[in-house]
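Quick illustration for those who missed Monday's session on complexes.
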Amino acid sequence: MLTWPAPQIPQLPGEGRPIRVRDSSTGDLVTAAEGPDARLYVCGITPYDATHLGHAATYVAFDLLLRGWIDEGKTVRYASNVTDVDDPLLERARATGVDWQDLAADQIALYREDMTALGVIPPDVYTGAVESVPDVVRAVQALVDAGAAYRVGRPDSTGAGEDDVYADLSADPSFGAVARLDAATMRAFFGERGGDPDRAGKRHELDPLLWRAARDGEPAWDGGDLGPGRPGWHIECAVIARDGLGLPFDVQGGGNDLRFPHHEMSTSHARLLDDGHGARTHVHTGMVGLDGEKMSKSLGNLVLVSRLRAQGVDAMAVRLAILAHHYAGDWEWTDTVIADAVARLEHWRDAVSGNGGPAADDTLAEIRAALADDLDAPRALRAVDAWADLSSSGRVPDDELVEGAPGVIARAVNALLGVRI
Ligand code: 5CA
Ligand code: ZN
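Prediction with zinc ion bound:
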């Protein structure tokens, strides 16, 4: 799948500290990647109603992690997917009378433009669900052969090759380790978030779909012995992460709506595909809301990045509005949030416009320390605010102004926070 142009990342003096993030399985702060390499997988969009501010906030959060790793001097490998065939996409296409492939292509194009404007680093490996079908088929077949997956007949089926295939979660003793939820919550989330706890014929109500046999009016691909059909959602990410990064990898990310069942299931599949390993650490972003509700495609309460851009809002102000909130918490998009960000951007641009300015070293160190401390962007913003306030105040005597300091701040804000000023 095509990505988008990579932003320029300026060089900075010195280097960053090891980035620590909150492991959402344990609640502990952990070093995001040990050693010289770092590997990240972030769940990509399902391409309809993209890119809303919730999506943007999630991708900007993991973009900070990549920037922190690069500043540490690590070699970074980043993989992501596009869920370009799945029930919600097909339902939207049907409801609006649009071809599902055209809907996906248009939305992916829009998403690329939004990510480019927001200065988000593109994935090194970017794979669509459709592209991954042959690999998914092999993986599902391997799970069937290993006795970790089984067929479930359909009431309307006329023979073999028309069964759906489900994972048998009892084959994975570590199932549950990602989200650590009680049985009732797991069942509730599974039902609300794309699962089918009431499907007749499953061994366990939480067993997730791996391969959906072809139905009339739905797209289908050759599944070999599985019969024609299309991939289940969780196996898609397990296979794309495995093939793009190798297993185990360092961090799997996404919004906290993916913690269960999606990341629990995809990690379980990866474990069974690779003898015990998936992502070492899971990191989850909070939900961006609008008018008291989670911003979501299904509710339709959306603020789109493309619409803001069309209204003339600088994408760097959108990025700053996101960075004013810690990634892990829930927050609300409001007119004040974007107005504050526009004002902040203007203030910073003003403050770096001179040749000399207040010394930059402590500010650079504080931005790095904030990033290293669980990607604390609001703290980094406060450090830049303080420098910009001082720079604009005229209080620094001329003989204390440092030549080139505004340039260091501008480069630091660009390299570490992804904000071009
Ligand atoms: N394609 C799947 C992942 S494999 C999917 O969840 N797509 S999505 O388009 O629904 O969401 C894309 C990413 O944005 C996910 O990481 C999701 O957790 C995140 N996301 C969705 N809504 C919000 C929101 N309101 N706030 C923050 N993040 C959100
Ligand atoms: Zn995913």
